[in-house]
């Protein structure tokens, strides 16, 4: 499954990942405000992209935690 993500999702995913790497709190409202300032015209679309990107990070971290705990074998 080679699903192509939209640029807003890719940007949100990257920004969330940068926050996580720096071990900083992810500020949803600030990311959405930056997206809107950069030309995103739909707050709903920005919120949807944020939710999808954050959901993907949560899923990834959950899988890593399960692997590290021995609950799952490494893929």
Could you walk me through the main structural features you see in this protein, from its secondary elements to its overall organization?
This protein has 75 residues and is mainly α. Helix content is 69%, strand content 0%. It contains 3 helices and no strands. The protein is elongated, with a radius of gyration of 14 Å. It starts with 6 loop residues before the first helix and ends in a 6-residue tail after the last helix. The relative contact order is 0.14.
Architecture blueprint of SSEs:
Elements lengths: L6 H15 L6 H10 L5 H27 L6
**In angstroms, what is the radius of gyration?**
14 Å
Number of strands: 0
Query: How would you state the average pLDDT, rounded?
Result: 91
Characterize the biggest β-sheet: none
> What would the principal axes of the Cα set say about the shape?
elongated
Distance between the termini: 17 Å
Strand content: under 5%
Number of helices: 3
Q: Structural class of the secondary elements?
A: mainly alpha
